[in-house]
């Protein structure tokens, strides 16, 4: 899709080539999909510790009072009640209630915020945020000079605490400033895998040194976007562009708990109206009867073979040894515990609608 | 990229090993590498009649599903049941233990539509450019 346009490279691009990674276009970037193989990288993240190049993601700095700057009005969660050095996952909606992006807000100071956004949405988000902030604020897009590396897995804390002092004190969804290779940088206890993990923000041009320092510990292996997608799918984390987008309401996508109707935000009226009228579709989570896996854009059928929706995320789950999927179906057409089918005109595979997440034994909150 | 000398090949990266009137079919090193970790193999049913270059089986990897086409026409006489319980066998040994099916060939002349090992190697070099 992005092949014709010049795909951007992260500062770790040469490292990926050295490791013979298979590179693919993703969100306008040339990214490693796998090094050794998706399954072995998946296993290593669940059992030990893996590092992921996430330099492609976007970072913004907003300075100003949460309410007066207009920042609070841009997202669906309260920000002003956040303690300092807390992270919060939230959503930015358009006036129709569709999702412009899902993001994490870091409260750096009382009136200073870092916002971390999806790579493919950087320009769209920057335009939207800057366009809605008041004169009592400032907006800075620091994506180009900010590198990011995710360290994920049950051993991540052991590995990092060897040479980053104080990191063991970070709680889930907290961040702090740490001395890393001579730099004073932000590290948060966040991630996209369901395992204990950290995200390190580091100067763009110095990323290869950080990468190498981590790989010097023999317990650490690199993992690509392929493993990352399987890990997040097992946790039922939404992927922007598949499970959520400008035309999908967060209430349809199962993200209700990130919407706070007690505050005002762009898209609130549309959501309330939709809620009252009844939602057209609903996200379901399902497990296939065998290793055969649902795929993005597969159809979903009722027990009586009536088409009821579409698969938004589908993959093989190594943790369950089954195909797993998420999909949007017409409201009321299938409930938890019921059988559905996924597939296409040629093949229809039986599955059961379940709860989330699929994978329940992660080290996330250890 | 490994290519076996005496096999014949298709542009879709299947191989066929002809022995008299029967033949063994599988996918090449290039195909298994492109697919990545194989998670599921749908084998054809015994006695299925297949046409040359039409679907014989399908293979799923973590990220994708791919149809496997029969290099020649014939009737399926044996399938590799080991792939049902151990799909990664296809990655580990695509030219031997990871074979997919055996067929009774119905028209040996169809051989001329396939590539020799040397031709297939050239074809692969073309893909890499």
Structure classification of chain B: alpha+beta
Determine the N-to-C terminus distance of chain B.
Answer: 14 Å
- Overall tally of domains of chain B: 1
Radius of gyration of chain A: 20 Å
**CATH topology category name of the largest domain in chain A:** Gyrase A, domain 2
Number of strands of chain B: 9
Helix content estimate of chain A: 10-25%
- Overall number of structural domains of chain A: 3
CATH class designation of the largest domain in chain A: Alpha Beta
Mean pLDDT value of chain B: 96
Shape of chain A: globular
Please count the beta strands of chain A (DSSP E, at least 2 residues each). Answer: 19
Shape of chain B: globular
Which tags fit this structure?
heterodimer, A: 366 residues, alpha+beta, Gyrase A, domain 2, Alpha-Beta Plaits, Elongation Factor Tu (Ef-tu), domain 3, 3 domains, six-stranded antiparallel beta barrel, B: 129 residues, OB fold (Dihydrolipoamide Acetyltransferase, E2P), six-stranded antiparallel sheet, 34% strand, globular
């Amino acid at each position: 899709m992005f092949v014709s346009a010049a795909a951007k490279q992260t500062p770790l691009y040469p490292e990926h080539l050295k490791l013979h990674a298979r590179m693919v276009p993703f969100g306008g970037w040339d990214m490693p999909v796998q090094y050794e193989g998706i399954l072995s990288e998946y296993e290593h993240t669940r059992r030990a510790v893996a590092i992921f190049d996430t330099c492609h993601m976007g970072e913004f700095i907003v300075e100003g009072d949460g309410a007066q700057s207009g920042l609070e009005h841009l997202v669906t969660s309260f920000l002003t009640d956040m303690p300092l050095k807390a992270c919060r996952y939230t959503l930015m909606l358009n006036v129709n209630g569709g999702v412009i992006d899902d993001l994490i807000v870091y409260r750096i100071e009382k009136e200073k915020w870092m916002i971390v956004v999806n790579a493919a949405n950087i320009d769209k988000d920057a335009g939207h945020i800057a366009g809605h902030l008041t004169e009592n604020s400032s907006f800075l897009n620091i994506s180009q000079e900010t590198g990011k590396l995710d360290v994920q897995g049950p051993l991540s804390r052991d590995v990092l605490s060897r040479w980053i002092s104080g990191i063991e004190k970070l709680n889930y969804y907290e961040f702090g400033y740490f001395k890393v290779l001579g730099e004073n940088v932000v590290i948060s206890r966040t991630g996209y895998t369901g395992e204990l993990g950290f995200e390190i923000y580091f100067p763009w041009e110095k990323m290869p040194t950080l990468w190498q320092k981590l790989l010097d510990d023999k317990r650490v292996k690199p993992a690509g976007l392929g493993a990352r997608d399987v890990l997040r799918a097992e946790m039922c984390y939404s992927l922007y562009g598949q499970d959520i987008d400008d035309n999908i309401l967060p209430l349809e996508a199962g993200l209700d708990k990130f919407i706070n109707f007690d505050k005002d935000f762009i898209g609130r009226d549309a959501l309330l109206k939709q809620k009252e009228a009844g939602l057209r579709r609903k996200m379901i989570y399902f497990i296939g009867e065998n290793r055969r896996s649902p795929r993005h854009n597969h159809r979903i059928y009722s027990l009586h073979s009536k088409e009821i929706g579409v698969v938004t995320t589908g993959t093989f789950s190594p943790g369950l040894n089954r195909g797993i999927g998420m999909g949007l179906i017409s409201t009321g057409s299938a409930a938890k515990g019921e059988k559905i089918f996924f597939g296409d005109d040629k093949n229809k595979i039986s599955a059961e609608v379940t709860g989330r997440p699929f994978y329940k034994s992660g080290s996330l909150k250890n | 990229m490994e290519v076996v000398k005496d096999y014949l090949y298709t542009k879709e990266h299947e191989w066929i090993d002809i022995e008299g009137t029967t033949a063994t079919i599988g996918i090449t090193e290039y195909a298994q590498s492109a697919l990545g970790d194989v998670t599921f193999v749908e084998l054809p049913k015994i006695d299925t009649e297949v046409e040359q270059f039409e679907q014989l089986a399908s293979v799923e990897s973590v990220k994708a599903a791919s149809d496997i086409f029969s290099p020649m026409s014939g009737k399926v006489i044996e399938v590799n049941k080991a792939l049902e319980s151990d799909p990664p066998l296809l990655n580990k040994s695509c030219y031997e233990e990871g074979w997919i099916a055996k067929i009774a060939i119905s028209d040996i002349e169809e051989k001329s539509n396939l590539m020799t090992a040397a031709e297939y190697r050239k074809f692969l070099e073309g893909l890499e450019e």
